[in-house]
Amino acid sequence: MSEATITVLPGDGVGPEVTAQALKVLRAVEKRYGHTFTVHEGLVGLDAIASEGSAISEATFQTCAQSDALLFGAVGALPAAERRAGGPRPELALFRLRKEFGFFANLRPVRPAEASYAASSLKPECLKGTDMVFVRELSAGLYYGHMETVPGKPSEIRQRDGRTEAVDTLLYTEEEIERVVRVAFDVAAGRRGKVTSVDKANVLSSSVLWRQVVDRVAADHPGVAYEHMLVDACAMRLIRTPAEFDVIVTENLFGDILTDEASMLTGSIGMLPSASLGTRRTAGGLFGLYEPVHGSAPDIAGQDAANPVGAVLSAALLLRHSLGLEREAAAVEKTVEDVIRDGYRSPDIHEEGCTVVGTEEFGRLIVDRLEARP
Ligand code: IPM
Ligand code: MG
């Protein structure tokens, strides 16, 4: 049996609805497999700004620091009128957690279930065999390049020589590239043994350095095949021949964009989970932050219409990477697949002949089957 401390940060919009399902699933795992999870909850995003004055308070940050894993919902969606220049922004909670806990590697698996191929806008024959993992660099690059500022700080728009201008800096050190590329080669070694490194080396200096580092790291992994691919070509191939990819490693902003694109292979961004990892060890693995790839989706918040799969699969990644509970993680993933195979769908992946269920009900179906597993 395992003991672990988990901090849940539901956040904004649909965040609380989907993390509630993920937590239900973790509680079911706890009961079914005889573990003890101590769960704390903290405010992040808009509620934290309203009641504690910043997107994440010092107290919440300390609670996180003392945990084995963080289960995160979503932040954002401040109405434009309230986005005052220089005012606190909900996304800062995420940027602070990523940066200060050193979560430099963001794993985003994309594996469309055969039963829901019809939910994708791609033809089923294109999707066949698609099973890839993105390793997105998460704590450097354009999001953090400007040393004296923080990401998303709107005051960066400035006046110079009578013009209005803004600047963002794409900066990578060799170390920042090397550590994330090593993660990608390690992940590939445990899978089909192929890394695609994505860059824009025909234009960007940081990409030229990125390629050099990849070539060097690859030399330490003779058993893993690798290739370099330009980001524009990758964007095309992802929807032309997605099954060719195994592990894709890329810098922060390219990874942000390509993973939204890749989510459409599953039919909905609501399906994708993620794990953000650094180097701090826990009893069972690595300290990490787990969140669905989707955002706060304010247009459907509070309607029991959000897809909880991304959040529930994020909980599975939490079990695997931070708690070392592989059997339990695989059981959650299999159960989600079973529920989909049996024809249940959230509205975003609805197709003819299937039963549309709400967020709560989808969560309950997963929990019931998990508890009934032999
Ligand atoms: C993601 C999100 C975030 C990002 C937003 C909410 C700032 O899009 O995790 O992909 O850009 O990193
Ligand atoms: Mg994104």
UniProtKB/TrEMBL annotation:
Which residues does the UniProt record annotate as the domain Isopropylmalate dehydrogenase-like? 5-366
Under SUPFAM superfamilies, the record lists: Isocitrate/Isopropylmalate dehydrogenase-like
- Residues annotated to bind NAD(+): 295-307
The GO annotation for biological process reads:
L-leucine biosynthetic process
Reactions catalysed, semicolon-separated, are: (2R,3S)-3-isopropylmalate + NAD(+) = 4-methyl-2-oxopentanoate + CO2 + NADH
Entry cofactors:
Mg(2+); Mn(2+)
Keyword list (alphabetical) reads:
Amino-acid biosynthesis, Branched-chain amino acid biosynthesis, Cytoplasm, Leucine biosynthesis, Magnesium, Manganese, Metal-binding, NAD, Oxidoreductase
Record: residues binding substrate: 98, 108, 136, 232
What note does UniProt attach to the cofactor annotation? Binds 1 Mg(2+) or Mn(2+) ion per subunit.
EC number per UniProt: 1.1.1.85
What pathway is it annotated to?
Answer: Amino-acid biosynthesis; L-leucine biosynthesis; L-leucine from 3-methyl-2-oxobutanoate: step 3/4
The entry's localization annotation reads: Cytoplasm
**Chain residues that bind Mg(2+):** 232, 256, 260
Q: PROSITE patterns from the xrefs?
A: IDH_IMDH
Any single GO CC term annotated in Swiss-Prot or TrEMBL for this entry = cytosol
Q: Where are the transmembrane segments?
A: none
SMART domains in the cross-refs: Iso_dh
The record's note on quaternary structure and interaction partners says: Homodimer.
Q: Which family does the similarity line name? A: Belongs to the isocitrate and isopropylmalate dehydrogenases family. LeuB type 1 subfamily.
What is the protein name stated in its UniProt record?
Answer: 3-isopropylmalate dehydrogenase
Give the organism, scientific name: Streptomyces reniochalinae
**Gene behind the chain:** leuB
